[in-house]
What we know:
The complex is a heterodimer.
Chain A: H1 5-22, E1 38-39, E2 50-55, E3 65-67, E4 70-74, E5 79-84, E6 90-95, E7 105-107, E8 110-114, E9 119-124, E10 130-135, E11 143-145, E12 156-158, E13 169-171, E14 174-178, E15 183-188, E16 194-199, E17 209-211, E18 214-218, E19 223-228, E20 234-239, E21 257-259, E22 262-267, E23 271-276, E24 282-287, E25 298-300, E26 303-307, E27 313-317, E28 324-329, E29 339-341, E30 344-348, E31 353-358, E32 364-369, H2 371-376, H3 389-392, H4 401-408, E33 418-420, E34 423-427, E35 432-436
Parallel strand pairs in A: 1-29
Antiparallel strand pairs in A: 2-35, 3-4, 4-5, 5-6, 7-8, 8-9, 9-10, 11-12, 13-14, 14-15, 15-16, 17-18, 18-19, 19-20, 21-22, 22-23, 23-24, 25-26, 26-27, 27-28, 29-30, 30-31, 31-32, 33-34, 34-35
Chain B: H1 2-23, E1 30-36, E2 43-51, E3 57-63, E4 68-72, E5 74-79, E6 82-87, E7 93-99, E8 103-110, E9 113-121, E10 142-150, E11 153-164, E12 168-174, E13 183-191, E14 194-200, E15 205-211, E16 217-224, E17 227-237
Antiparallel strand pairs in B: 1-2, 1-9, 2-3, 3-4, 5-6, 6-7, 7-8, 8-9, 10-11, 10-17, 11-12, 12-13, 13-14, 14-15, 15-16, 16-17
Amino acid sequence: MGVTTAGRTAAWVGVLLATAASAPAQGMFRGGPAHTGVYAAKAPRELHGVKWRFATGGAVLSSPVVERGTLYFGSGDGNVYAVDAMTGVQRWMSRTRGAVDSTPAVDQDLVFVLSFDGTLYALEAATGKHRWTFATEGERRFEARGLHGLAPKNQTFFDAWDMYLSSPVAAQGAVYFGSGDGNVYAVEETSGALRWKFTTGGVVHASPAYDAGTIYVGSWDSYLYALDAASGREKWRFKTGEDPLMHNQVGFQSSPAVARGIVYVGCRDAHLYAVDAATGKQRWSLPTQGSWVVASPAVAPGKVIFGTSDSKLLFALDPETGKPVYQQPDNSYLFSSPAVAGDTIVVGKMNGALVALDLESGKRLWEYQTDASKQNAGWLLKADRSHNDAMTFRAGDYGTGAGVERLFSLGAVASSPLVAGGVVYFGSTDGFLYALY
Amino acid sequence: MQPRLCAGAALSVLLAAGPARAQGAAVPGGRFEGIARIPGAPAVLVLDLDREPKGGWIASITAPGYGAKGLPLTAVTEAGGELSASFALFGGATLRVHSSGSGLVGTLEAAGQTAPLELARAGAAQVDRPPRNAALAAGFCGQWSAQFEVGAFKLHAELSLRNEEGSTSSGEMKVPEMGGSAMKLEGIAQDGETVRFKAVGGQPIEYEGRLSPRGDSIDGRLYVASLDTAVRFERAARPAGGN
């Protein structure tokens, strides 16, 4: 009432600039502790080519982060990598005993990253040597009886779509992360000593966001939690949808983004929620036509941006009202979280492509297709590169490893892009980390 | 006479050139990326080849999608313009390549099968050198044996550790129930009374253990895939000379 769009945008710019100025660290998932997904650098408005690509031995679901010219990321081959951002030459790799499908956080010259071996690693940023490790109670993927309607209905199936591990966030001398054991942990940055743990009712593979002394994180138990960062005490919990029949429309993979006192988060119950950061009361929600919101939203001035799974839509919503500013249809499932860099959005696609769009209009600027997508598409993609579900999820293997593996064979870009120095960095399930300019 | 002489000379030139073509150009160093066209499962491979200052090659291979990053190439030989090498993937594989001008072409052989291999040049070599094996305190050197259990499986292991010239070490580990052949140790490291290493050449095995005060056992944990179990190595024999 009485506040113009331009005025709101200006206010947002002010908030974001102030946030950027006070941000203690950029080297973590979604560009900082609040996970806004907004990067200071500008993304290329046209694609010039591949600057380099770096080969690992496994799918790269992890998202790269950058600190002092070095990229850090994990791979399904069990390694954590440090790579020169300019040249793509490896600086070091550090072995874990499980897939590193989480995004590292870099703070105080340490790299914190979670592995599917159930261990949080603190590595020296310069060398990759272990400084300390912290063992959780063990990793697992979300699982349920008759999951996604798979038969037999009394069989317990693991969810192959539960592909990401929680990415740690470092703030106030602590490292915060979730685990498949159902806990949210806070450990000391310097020693790995447990500060506190908070037990939820389900797998926690979303990544906690930190803002003003509070940790926000969703669990597969259908709740979004706000926890006191110092003590782990629950401040509030926000209930989302449940699906007792198929367990399909429940739980959080999306990680919250916090801006201007509002927590924005996607949910597998097919909604994007805006929740008051102080009270946990819903401000608004947007239904997404039955499609999961796995991606974490980016919060840019005047727009909340995120993609959906089956409906393949990229939304830009008004942060105050939740009303769509625009929604762009795409031809692929969008699991990757969008990055906003300057006047450009970049986001990965499960058909093995990465697309850049104009922030203001949502119009497509350019698209890059991985070699794996070109070479392995077969009939998994239609002629227009949209998904051929009949070939991808044959014999009803939706949600099982086989269907997801076929998607991965396309060089799916489930990793969330990083934009730095005019270059877009992202991982692919073809095993490469790409640098596009 | 004259024409016959010319024909003979030309034939000589051709004969001389023939073997030269068969031998082909020397295999260049560098990074090469491409595909082994395994029927139904084309495999992307990244090959890094670098010439050692003292001659010979050092090389590693990465296979995205097969969990293999920087696997060392062994038995690297070059003859007649063809380079062949072995590596521990696809159940044990051998590649044979020669220069194609813009890259390398050849074959990948594994399990009695052969697949065409085409690799394009992709910059300078980035060989993953095997982690250096650190010299060990004398107390770790020698022959060790252990009996242990992984679930319902009763296994035993034979371990050999020794120091080498140049402040390095080497070793092998053999678990007969897991294939039988001796696996080379990589990344041997000592931190006080603790030793760590990785056995490669089959299912990778990692071990971390602590030498007992009497020096007659190493107590630690052995990691295979997602499993880990307590393993106590008992000293079987010290090396001659105590080193």
